[in-house]
């Protein structure tokens, strides 16, 4: 028996042909034509099936069929295969239903409504129509995806509409197979419906499992959580909330908010007050209650925190951060000393703390740079963020890079799986303290410059640039200006770092602080009330403390260890080897010692060598020797400055003259070391350069 299918488009023809082949399984010989791609001159068949009424009308105008030809005009419906995707769309969502013609779009909407899709608002649209505004975010189309406007990203293609059951029944009826086959066909439909139902059951199970997980997570929260809607029904109440509000667990039965809240004050706050956060006394406990209203769904989420427990856990977090070194332990109040110099430092530091400027701290070792960095962080608006300290002198170049900037997986041999987050990212929202900044290589200097300029980092081995929000405080005990002039430190980086600048005076320049500091260190180490003998006080005040406060702290620790009575006397002093620079000689030394820049030290040292060997120390020969020396020591590869110049040598010699260490010469013989210069060299125990 021969059936001819006549459709409008080739796509519909193919889909309906496939449906008939699948359904009738060789029962009929089926031929299909589409108006779009051409019809035969005459059509002879036992039955002609039109894909729609429009097609039937168009064909009858062409007079292709003989009179009395048996015909069925199909009623088409949405295929069930993709229906679950339609059902998943959010309730009330506006959807554009896209078809080639407005009538077919309307038909598709009708078909969807007939099978019970009534939770979404469907707007019919075909390319001949203007687009509705605002444009819906989702489109549904029966196999016409290419017509969907490009602005719509979510498209649910439900496939071309197929024959509904009444059409299949009509075909069977017209061909005389109804009696024999209708049962088998209705069973086929039933199977599809069962398949649909089992798909729905699967999604239901998935949702159940998800809900279960979610409840576990919500119950596991340390805070109480409650959600209620506009009508006052509570949909979420986790275990902690039950515990804080003393509500028994009644399974899944809905709870009315008013029945749940025994405290009138809490009820009033949740339902009537404008403020969003309040501490209330509930069952003799201080509870912080926060409410957040979602204006879209008009649901209110309530977070309940036990104030005491929160403080305790906050302290635990602080302890944790401290253990990991991410916590700034000092504030300005921890800085001992009332000297004018220290007061000035504190005043400037407080001002800089309030800004977000990069700060460079310069001062000799042990003068309290790290304490100031920590205090700046604690007094800054970032005080709640992390504080990370990195000491460059202790790290190799490679380690500095990977620690600071992190790395991607496989960036180098031994790189950790999954990569590693760098310290800049870990310090997000806080402050990073870069100690001994003068020790970093040219390569790290360049990368750091980028961080300061762009506030961005690129992990080692990565291609993706990441923004960071970190304040930088750097410190050095070196003369960075001298390093810049020698090309060892980048000038641009130096000025970027020096946005905010603080010089920490050495202890010998703020002698008023020595005794209060000593007393502080004593009180830190012992509960005994110990007195310092006058001679000890004098000796302390007269010493020039090259190791600064750290050296003073060490001295106090030593004396406390050896002293037995109530007095600390000169007897408890360690011998001179304990001190970094001959204590006994400096006991009598009234004048402050001389401090040199690295360049001055180098030149003085070279002159001492020449002096010993009886060689000339004219500017020209010094410059030549300095260059040779630099060649031998290996010049920094990233050096931007020219080698030692006559001008530099002249400046350095000028400095040494000013400090009384050399005497300027006139002829080629050049400058000479003074008595003081010779003594300095001896005291410093130079071994030659
Ligand atoms: N004003 C102060 N009051 C109390 N203690 C201080 C003070 N200044 C420094 N200290 C103590 O002295 C020691 C050295 O201080 P800190 O580490 O801050 O110095 P630094 O300049 O960063 O040293 P370095 O350059 O060697 O890293 C620390 O134990 C610190 O607690």
Automatic annotation (TrEMBL):
SUPFAM superfamilies per the UniProt record, alphabetical: P-loop containing nucleoside triphosphate hydrolases
Superkingdom field: Bacteria
InterPro entries: AAA+_ATPase, AAA_lid_NorR, P-loop_NTPase, Sigma_54_int, Sigma_54_int_dom_ATP-bd_1, Sigma_54_int_dom_ATP-bd_2, Sigma_54_int_dom_CS
Keywords: ATP-binding, DNA-binding, Nucleotide-binding, Transcription, Transcription regulation
GO biological process per UniProt: regulation of DNA-templated transcription
GO MF annotation: an example: ATP binding
Keyword RNA-binding among UniProt keywords: no
SMART domains on file: AAA
Pfam family for this entry, one: AAA_lid_14
Keyword ATP-binding on entry: yes
Sigma-54 factor interaction domain span: 335-561
Identification of the protein by name: Transcriptional regulator containing PAS, AAA-type ATPase, and DNA-binding Fis domains
